[in-house]
Every structure is written in structure tokens, then in C-alpha cells.
Amino acid sequence: MACSPSVRGTEPGCSRESGNSRMTEWLPERRIQCPYCGESISIVVDVSAGSQSYVEDCQVCCEPIEIQVDIEAGNLEDLRADRGI
Q: Is 23 domain-assigned?
């Protein structure tokens, strides 16, 4: 089933790039709070990569944020943002 232009990017399984792509399910966007400056920033989580831990710089203050992602059965279970090393 193709996604209509009005819902593309909002329905599960629909993305802006392709009408029946499942990209939005595997790359959900989430908001976290920077542990340094307190700003709310947006990150994209790669659910297909499984549980992971990585460092990403804050888009506002450029400080390192350690992001910990817990994935179970292909679902995002927990997302934590702490001060990086």
C-alpha cells in the first residue's frame, strides 16, 4: 500500500523519500536534553543497529554527549544522554 502525499512521513512505514519505504520505522527521530547546556536537541536513532553506545556532539554547545540506546526485539526500549568523556 502506498502512502498518500498528505501523510508521508507521519504514518508508520511512510517516509518523505519513498511512499512505501520502512525507513522511518528503522530511523526514528527522538529529542534528548543536552546534559551540559540543557537544550532540547533532535537525534536520529538507527534501530536496525541494535543496542549501542556512542558519542555525539551537542548541536548547540558542541560538548560531547554519550548516547546509550537499548533495543529489544527491534523496538527502542530506552534512550539515555549523559556527559561524554
A: no
Output the nine-digit C-alpha cell for 84.
Answer: 561524554
Residue 79 within a domain: yes
pLDDT value, residue 84 = 85
Tell me which residue range forms the domain holding 37.
28-83
9-31 tens-digit pLDDT: 444 444 444 443 555 677 899 99
pTM for this predicted structure: 0.68
Return the HEC string of the chain: CCCCCCCCCCCCCCCCCCCCCCHHHHCCEEEEECCCCCCEEEEECCHHHCCEEEEEECCCCCCEEEEEEEEECCEEEEEEEEECC
Number of domains in the chain: 1
